[in-house]
């Protein structure tokens, strides 16, 4: 038994309501359940109940045991002094407000159908990765699609909140923020941290002064990344970059901003994903789109993004994966799947965050449309949903599916899930 289940029982009134009484044997009638509260204070606000012949308006607090009231120090918290009913599974102690007036208590253990408890237990005690997988087909498609919509918006809002944090640090500079978020994305999972540190140590305003010179942009990026110092120069191109960076580092006071080479990960990466290659691709994209965020706002579809992102890196990096080591063939430009990753994890969150700040729904609609235009991601999570016949047709579906699994299924939050609630309410 847990409080989340008790919240569910109260919210949907899934208990025997005939002849309701408090633990002091006073008649009880629920007139209004109240509003579920996720902020500080009691669990349900604006509740109306009738105890005896007196109508009460206030809050309901829910605990496993009555004694939890004192255990959680509610007796001395002003935010709980408007509680008119204490709903508990077990009444083990009378509880009082700070003025020593007794709070009416109602128990649920003697009013809850044992079949409902067993249903809930079968979900939360399931060893399956998706607890309801054997019952998933019983739930209507409408409920499933409603859950997909819910979790997608939750995922977009979560990603947008990260953008807002960067934006705050960057003093509301959207261009700098877009540059940093794109940099982090270019590191993908393995090199995300050194990439974001690089972008933070090398401001976009510095790169913008050299937008007409790709060589200088490469010198700045590779220099601050640590590839031009504290190592033996292995070829003439690297030597030229190192000399250029030495001059630019002094000019912009970047000497103490240089990352250590040990921060970059190469192990188990395919050569096309080496950070050196990603840096060269990033340099070209930044050079051609120095006002990157403004460009993003004007994208009309994902094809526009492909044109911007799939540009050829400099001639040297078309033939090298590492300094001094020539590739056997041509080094490819950034691939389609990588561009899709950029759209999902950079452009879409930026559009959602901008939509929130400007209170302009058009940017949110564009972000969602981009996800609908992209193919679904393929990973272990999306495979689980496909096995359950939940369509994964676009990135809209796969992003929603990932959020659904990670936030709800993984943590057995079945009582916050449309499917879980539907299964529990079935035939009640």
Provide mean pLDDT, rounded. 95
How many alpha or pi helices? 17
Following the backbone from N to C, one meets helices and strands in this order, namely HEEEEHEEHHHHHHHHHHEEHHHHH
Form type: elongated
Q: Specify the biggest β-sheet.
A: 6 strands, mixed
Q: Portion of residues in helices?
A: 40-55%
Beta-strand content estimate: 5-15%
- Counting DSSP E segments of at least 2 residues, the number of strands comes to 8
Task: Show unreliable segments.
Answer: none
Helix/strand structural class? alpha/beta
Gyration radius, rounded: 29 Å
State the separation between the terminal residues, measured CA to CA: 19 Å
List keywords for this structure.
alpha/beta, single chain, 48% helix, 6-stranded mixed sheet, 428 residues
Short description:
It is elongated and about 90 Å long. The strands form 2 sheets. Strands 1, 2, 3, 4, 5 and 6 form a 6-stranded mixed beta sheet that branches.
Could you explain the architecture of this structure?
There is one protein chain. The chain is an alpha/beta fold and 428 residues long. 48% of the residues lie in helices and 10% in strands. The protein has 17 helices and eight strands. Strand 7 (320-322) and strand 8 form a beta hairpin. Helix 3 runs antiparallel to helix 17, helix 4 packs across helix 16 (395-409) and helix 8 packs across helix 10.
């Amino acid at each position: 038994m847990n409080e989340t289940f008790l919240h569910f029982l109260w919210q949907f009134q899934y208990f025997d309501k005939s002849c309701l009484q408090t633990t002091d044997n006073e008649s009880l009638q629920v007139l209004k359940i109240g509003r579920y509260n996720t902020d500080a204070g009691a669990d349900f606000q604006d509740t109306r109940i009738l105890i005896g012949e007196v109508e009460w308006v206030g809050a309901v607090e829910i605990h496993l045991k009555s004694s939890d009231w004192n255990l959680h120090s509610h007796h001395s918290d002003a935010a709980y002094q408007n509680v008119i009913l204490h709903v508990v599974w077990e009444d083990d102690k009378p509880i009082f407000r700070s003025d020593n007036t007794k709070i009416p208590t109602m128990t649920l253990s003697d009013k809850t159908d044992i079949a409902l408890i067993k249903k809930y237990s079968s979900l939360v005690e399931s060893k399956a990765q998706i607890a309801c997988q054997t019952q998933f087909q019983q739930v209507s498609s409408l409920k499933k699609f409603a859950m997909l919509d819910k979790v997608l918006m939750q995922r977009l809002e979560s990603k947008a909140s990260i953008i807002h944090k960067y934006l705050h640090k960057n003093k509301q500079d959207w261009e700098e923020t877009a540059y940093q978020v794109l940099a982090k994305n270019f590191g993908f999972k393995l090199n995300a941290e050194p990439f974001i540190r690089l972008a933070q140590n090398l401001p976009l305003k510095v790169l913008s002064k050299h937008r007409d010179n790709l060589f200088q942009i490469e010198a700045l990026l590779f220099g601050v990344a640590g590839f031009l110092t504290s190592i033996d120069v292995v070829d003439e191109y690297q030597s030229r970059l190192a000399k250029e960076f030495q001059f630019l580092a002094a000019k912009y006071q970047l000497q103490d901003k240089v990352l250590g080479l040990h921060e970059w990960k190469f192990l188990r990466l395919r050569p096309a994903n080496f950070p050196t290659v990603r840096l060269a691709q990033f340099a070209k994209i930044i050079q051609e789109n120095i006002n990157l965020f403004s460009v993003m706002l004007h994208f009309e579809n994902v094809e526009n993004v492909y044109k911007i992102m799939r540009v050829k890196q400099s001639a040297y990096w078309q033939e090298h994966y590492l300094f001094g080591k020539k590739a056997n063939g041509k080094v490819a430009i950034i691939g389609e799947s990588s561009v899709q990753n950029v759209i999902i994890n950079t452009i879409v969150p930026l559009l959602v965050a901008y939509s929130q700040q400007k209170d302009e729904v058009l940017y949110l609609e564009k972000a969602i449309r981009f996800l609908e235009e992209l193919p679904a991601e393929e990973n272990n999570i999306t495979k689980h949903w496909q096995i359950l016949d939940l369509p994964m047709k676009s990135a809209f579906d796969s992003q929603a599916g990932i959020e659904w699994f990670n936030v709800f299924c993984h943590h057995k939050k079945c009582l916050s899930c449309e499917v879980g609630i539907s299964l529990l309410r079935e035939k009640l």
